[in-house]
Amino acid sequence: MNTNVPPRTVTPDQARRRCDPGELDFTDTNQARELPRLLAQHRAGAALEFGSRVDGPGFNLYVLGTPGSLRHEIIQQFLEQESAGREAPGDLCYVNNFRDERKPRHLLLPPGLGPRFRDDIAGLVEDLQASIPAAFESESYQAQVEELHQELQERHKRALAEIGEEAEENGLTLMPTPNGFAIAPVRKGQVISEKEFQALPEKTRRKTEEAIARLSEKLKKHLEGLPAWHKERRERMRELDKHVIILSVGGLIQELRERYKELPGIVEYLDAMEADALEHSQQFQPIEGPGPGLGLLTGHEPQPALHRYSVNLMVENQPEQGAPVVYESMPSHQNLIGNVEHRVEFGNLVTDYRLIRPGSLHRANGGYIIVDAERVLTQPLAWESLKRALFRNCVKIESAGALLSLASTEGLEPEPVPLRVKVVMVGSRLLYYLLSEYDPDFNELFKVAADFDDQLDRTPENTALYGRIIASLARQRDLKPFSAAAVARVIEQGARYAGDAEKLSTRLRGLADLLSEADHICQERGGRQVETGDVQQAIRWARDRHSRMYEQILEAIQRNDILIDTAGSKPAQVNGLSVFRLSDVSFGLPARITATVRLGKGTVLDIERESKLGGSIHSKGVMILSSYLGTRYTRDWPFALSASLVFEQHYGGIEGDSASAAELCALLSAIGQLPVRQDLAITGSVNQHGDIQSIGGVNEKIEGFFDVCAGRGLSGSQGVLIPASNVKHLMLREDVVEAIDQGRFHVYPVAHVDQAASLMFGLPAAEAGEDGEFPEGSLHAAVAKNLARFRDRAVEFARLQNPVAKAKDGSGSNGGDS
Amino acid sequence: MNTALIRVLLAIDTATPSRGLLEVVAGLGLGTQVSLQAAFFEDQGLLESASLSCAREVSHRELVPRALDRQSLERQILWRRETLKRHFLASARPLAREHQFRSIRGPTGSELLREAREHDVLILGRPGPLTCLPSWMGARLEHLLQSGPSTIVLAQDDWSTGAALVAVTGSDNTGDKALATASRIASAAALPLTVLNQALLNPGATGTPDQPVDYLADSPGTRELVNQLRQKAVRALVINAELAARYPELIPTVLRKTMSSVVICH
Asked: Do both B150 and B27 map to the same domain?
């Protein structure tokens, strides 16, 4: 490129690369064929396919990408298709462990059988609830119980009667006392007094005492034997209860045993259940309720003992559903691995296996679970719990309190459930690389990375594909059909989101929102199909919603609170361009950059840097300018000036080197004392050779200057100089393109600072001749001339400052050769 | 029986519990005109035996024959009296009936007979293991039957258990009173009533119109009666005093071999 030829303004086609609806293979979105959105992500798609199918420890997936790419939806859609053909995992139940109720057991059943088994056991429990109490209340049982009771009573009474009769025969009486029984001599039915007793003949007294001693001994033996009698009765009662239970339970359980004979785990459970029922037969005795008030408080149930047999169905799958795909939106420790709930009874927290609740790992077992990386990492214990489950290949429900040693109360320890799950963690690239670097477990557990591209090449094929993705998004959200032209407009916006006319953004959330908003506008106007105007309106509204601050700044510029000239020429003052980012929306605005020069030692002072408002990249750009100036103009002699650069009225931080072209123009103007056009703004970074390099946010910057100029009325000469390499990024607003088309606004691509200078200063830059001198009347000549003047003044100043040198110089001059 | 005000005596001694005796009052269907008196009999004979050097006591806790200690016995009687009094007053107060608790010291048998004459209904608590003896709290049963009030209730452990009532009637008019009492109790307690002929052979007796009458199968004697009482889980056997006197072994046997209480009517 000839750097001295003034650049031409870009054409409307260059300013915005339009999408031809003819590139799409449908007339409206209802006609578009459905396609997996993952098609647009070739690299990530291949990784997902591999990761989701490969078996082996640690082959879990981490999906990298930027937010807004609808990765969760895309992955879920992909995994649902992938899992559809796979075998459904079994159902999971927790049941009581009759040997140790603190450690409930799990049962794995074929898919779909869990509810049936639960209902069967519930039916059994219901039957038992009726049959066991009925058996215990039956006349036959009651009669047998009473018989046992009476038998004991009768034995007791008979023994006492015998003692009583023998006492009577010996002139004694057997009396009940508060503690037991007493034996004393009587006469005519009345206990005799001590005096009367002592008055008896000694032989009678001795005989009486012997009889009392003998009967006391008998009484003692009888009372000693009572506990054994009671024990015997209890055992016989237990046997009787067992018999009743067997009659009530045996048949019902046997029926279930037959039904589930193919499942040893269930048969084993039924055996244990029967044995437990026999062992705890006394629990099934009908009980008196605690009364209505108390019952309400405690949730009193008629037969709590029978609830030990009910089934806690944790996970239910259907045989035809395929492998499960679970998206855990809140991957906390508890939500992932499940928990044991408690209920309050009389102020105490109590629990049992029926209060075990599944986590998403239980639900996803045998399939896939999608979790958000950032959420897993920010939830206490969640990341550690997930890793532990993956390392152990099992899910063990542990309370957070117990893990942190905060609670030492006795709780349940449910049997761990074997785990076979594929974890798909969705997160940012930064998190991925941080985890890779700092968590050694991560690389062991997440061996497959699926990296979602942020952009897609805007080829004809991809454009068609993109159109179908848009159609798919619209259909999925039940939106009105979009015409092909409207879709084309959305595609253009996709390029604008990418900030590149040759790319399409894969951040589909923004597009999806745009579609929803356009659909709403269409509905508001009563349209049946979303048209280009609706999309255009939606884009405008979205921008307007976020433009409060932007408009305030524009107003401040129009009212000259912020000084920006858009006409005429002024020395050492250039319109640079900067970009503000607010939420998801970016705005470009002009900024006045000024430069001053004075005699010095060849430094360019970056005032932004000195005031700590400029970033390091910005400072680097300024240093490059020093190098450029020195190399270009003062290769053989000192660069004897000091310059200062500043972004006027800029009080926030400045970063990046996209203003270095503008800063260079300001410096050149200040040095050469040349006026700069104020109807132009310039953006671009500069290297040491004066090449203008591409920058970001070119569209927003152009539009920002356009809005300022348009606010004052477009003069026809106004425009923006951009790096030539940024032309491919142009996707300018319709009104800007229209102004370019009408010649009322211009965008000049420039490749070298000389090209920019010819526009900014209205002077040719001109290369130096063979003698090293720049042609008179050129920009460089003016700059070089003033730099030489600075040099001369510096030499002169040096002489004034150093008389010795001056003397030597003088003697030397005067003395001639020495 | 004085229908205007029925005087009920609950007789308690150191060996009988008072708990449940008020249930008996309610279960008898006596209506609201009731005056309740609980009498705690402190047996003079037992106290005197404590002064007797040869007398021995075998307690349930210490299975060693020991001489009785008067002071210890007094303390225990006092504790028991106060406990019973507290229970009685706490239970009787909500009934809003006239009630009183008294303690009587003396020969229990004769004191009981004397008190019984002053009342219309005598309720005696669980008879204890010495039911086999012909005496009841020291009073011989035949004396109670001869000079006692119109209704005597010999209550077993728990009056509220049992699902039926049995009345024994005579072949002559001796059973009319028993049948009327049994009907009243059955109605108050909503229990089916079974009417049994004195000879256990005659099924000709009838119940009240609102109570089903289930005639027992003919039975040769007391053993069969006991069996029937057990199988039917009978709450109480209601019998006329004359019949009870005619069969002196019947009541002790029923009390010893079944859980049924006995109501004796004059």
From this structure: yes
Chain A, nearest residue to B67 by Cα: A182
Report percent pLDDT > 90 for chain A: 43
- Where along chain A do the CATH 3.40.50.300 domains lie? 42-89+317-452
Chain A residues whose beta carbon lies within 8 Å of the beta carbon of residue B128: 176
Judge if pTM exceeds 0.80.
no
- Asked if the Cβ–Cβ distance from B56 to A212 is below 8 Å, we say yes
> Are B245 and B190 in the same domain?
yes
Region class of A505: left (phi > 0), else alpha (psi between -120 and 50), else beta: beta
- pLDDT tens per residue, range A344-376: 877 788 888 999 999 999 999 999 999 999 999
Q: Do A146 and B230 touch (CB under 8 A)?
A: yes
Active site residues of A: 658, 701
- Neighboring chain A residues of B13 at a CB cutoff of 8 Å: 176
Q: What is the ipTM of this complex?
A: 0.75
User: Can you give the CATH number for the domain in which B141 is found?
Assistant: 3.40.50.620
DSSP state, A88? Answer: P
- Length of chain B as a residue count: 266
Chain B partners within 8 Å of A208 (Cβ): 54
Q: Distances from the Cα of A123 to the Cαs of A115, A119, A563, in angstroms?
A: 12, 6, 85
Q: Are residues B194 and B248 in the same domain?
A: yes
Range of the domain at B215: 164-265
Beta bridge partners of B124: B11, B154
A174 interfaces chain B, CB cutoff of 8 Å:
yes
Secondary structure of residue B234 in the 3-state scheme: strand
Summarised one tens digit per residue, pLDDT across range A746-782 is 999 999 988 898 899 988 877 777 777 788 888 888 8
Does residue B139 sit in the same domain as residue B227?
Answer: no
User: A residues 677-706 near B, CB within 8 Å?
Assistant: none
The token pair that represents A396 in the structure block: 């063990």
In terms of Cα–Cα distance, which of A240, A235, A242 is closest to A281? Answer: A242
Cα distance between residue A623 and residue A687, in whole Å: 10
Lookup: tokens for A80: 């649902």
Q: Tell whether B261 is covered by a domain.
A: yes
Q: What is the pLDDT of residues A477-533, one digit of tens each?
A: 899 999 999 999 999 999 999 999 999 988 888 889 999 999 999 999 999 999 999
Contact A178 B259 (CB under 8 A): no
- The answer to whether A176 contacts B68, with C-beta atoms less than 8 Å apart, is no
Q: Which residue has the higher pLDDT, A490 or A303?
A: A490
Q: For domain A18-29+455-545, is the CATH number 1.10.3720.10?
A: no
Listed by number, the residues of chain A in 117-146 with a beta carbon closer than 8 Å to a beta carbon of chain B are 139, 142-143, 146
Question: Which CATH topology does A42-89+317-452 take?
Answer: Rossmann fold (3.40.50)
Q: How many CA atoms lie within 13 A of A29 on its CB side?
A: 29
Beta bridge pairs of residue A604? A643
Distance from CA of A199 to the nearest CA of B (A): 13
For residues B94 and B30, state if they share a domain: yes
CB contact under 8 A, A161 and B60: no
Q: Note whether B49 contacts A191, CB cutoff 8 Å.
A: yes
B79 occurs within a structural domain: yes
pLDDT digits (tens, 9 = 90+) for B173-209: 556 788 888 888 888 888 888 887 665 533 343 444 4
The pLDDT score that the predictor gives to residue A177 is 81
Local structure of A711: helix, strand or coil: helix
CATH fold for the domain made of A551-766+774-794: Ribosomal Protein S5; domain 2 (3.30.230)
Using CB atoms, which residue from B45, B64, B132 is nearest to A175?
A: B45
Half-sphere exposure of A593 (CA within 13 A, CB side): 34
Interchain pair B109, A185: CB under 8 A: no
Of A147, A180, A191, the CB nearest to B48: A191
Mean pLDDT lowest among A311-320, A386-395, B130-139: B130-139
At A264, the pLDDT band (50, 70, 90 cuts) reads: very high
Question: Residue A665: its pLDDT value, please?
Answer: 93
pLDDT of residue A305: 67
Q: Which among A157, A160, A185 has the least Cβ separation from residue B54?
A: A185
* CA within 13 Å, CB half, A562: 22
